[in-house]
């Protein structure tokens, strides 16, 4: 029913994204997924399966979705969630996920510009996907890196400073974001908004003890 919108000789990642954007604009679906892409433009789907891969060999749908127009990105709905996998530790997978930007880990501490923030999201999502597969090494590495970013947010934004002192609850929120993340744009943006909304109404912890006032 649908034909590829590009000549075979001109197919590229850029043209694939242009094709998907055009189809989304024409049909304006409320949600879409990989099956929707396959049904409308099989050649684009085959190109993605063959050429758009993560360092671990899986299809990198995150790269596809984040390249689409912003108004379409949030409509992405992955396939059915797989059953929970057994937890395991494999730091080799973590090293492979970070290898391309191994000298850019400073982006979690002090990103300098938009390009750094983009790299931060690429690295974060790579570790999120490994953690969702059950790799505890990836989750622990990600939690460690995210803590630098979160500490900066707590210092910079008053409405996040309410998390100061709620260490256990804060970690639970971050781990929840890692488990739930499918695709809603930037992972760091998703984490930021989650902490913002869940922190509303949370009273700041008292930083003093009654004993300091000799109330005995």
Your description of this structure?
Helices cover 54% and strands 0% of the residues. It is mainly α and 216 residues long. Helix 7 packs antiparallel against helix 8 (136-156). It is globular, with a radius of gyration of 21 Å. The termini are far apart. 22% of the residues are buried.
Q: In terms of topology, how is this protein built?
A:
Blueprint: H1 13-27, H2 34-40, H3 42-51, H4 61-67, H5 70-73, H6 91-98, H7 114-132, H8 136-156, H9 167-180, H10 187-198
Helix pairs in contact: 1-3, 2-3, 6-7, 7-8, 9-10
Backbone structural class:
mainly alpha
Strand content: under 5%
Total of helices = 10
* Overall form: globular
Largest sheet: none
Calculate the terminal CA-CA distance, rounded to whole Å: 82 Å
User: How many discrete structural domains?
Assistant: 2
Rg, nearest Å:
21 Å
Order of helices and strands: HHHHHHHHHH
> Unreliable stretches, pLDDT < 50, 5 or more residues?
1-7, 207-216
Kindly state the mean pLDDT as a whole number?
Answer: 86
Q: What percent of residues adopt helix (DSSP H or I)? A: 40-55%
- Can you count the beta strands? 0
Sum up the structure in keywords.
single chain; 216 residues; mainly alpha; 10 helices; 54% helix; disordered N terminus; disordered C terminus
Put the structure in a nutshell.
The chain has 216 residues and is mainly α. Helices cover 54% and strands 0% of the residues. The longest helix is centred in the C-terminal third of the chain and has 21 residues, at 136-156.
């Amino acid at each position: 029913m649908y034909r590829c919108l590009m000549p075979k000789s001109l197919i590229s990642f850029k043209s694939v994204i242009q094709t998907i954007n055009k189809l989304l604009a024409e049909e304006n679906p409320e949600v879409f997924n990989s099956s929707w892409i396959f049904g409308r433009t099989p050649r684009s789907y085959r190109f993605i399966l063959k050429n758009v891969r993560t360092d671990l060999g899986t299809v990198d749908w995150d790269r596809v979705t984040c390249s689409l127009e912003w108004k379409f990105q949030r409509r992405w709905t992955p396939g059915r969630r797989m059953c929970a996998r057994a937890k395991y530790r494999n730091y080799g997978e973590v090293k492979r996920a970070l290898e391309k930007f191994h000298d850019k880990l400073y982006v979690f501490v002090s990103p300098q510009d938009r390009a750094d923030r983009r790299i931060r999201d690429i690295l974060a999502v790579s570790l999120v996907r490994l953690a969702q597969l059950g790799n505890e090494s990836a989750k622990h590495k990600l939690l460690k890196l995210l803590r630098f970013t979160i500490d900066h947010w707590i210092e910079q934004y008053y409405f996040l400073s309410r998390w100061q002192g709620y260490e256990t609850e804060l970690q639970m929120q971050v781990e929840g974001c890692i488990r739930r993340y499918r695709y809603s744009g930037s992972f760091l943006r998703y984490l930021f908004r989650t902490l913002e909304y869940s922190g509303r109404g949370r009273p700041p912890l008292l930083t003093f003890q009654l004993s300091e006032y000799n109330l005995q």
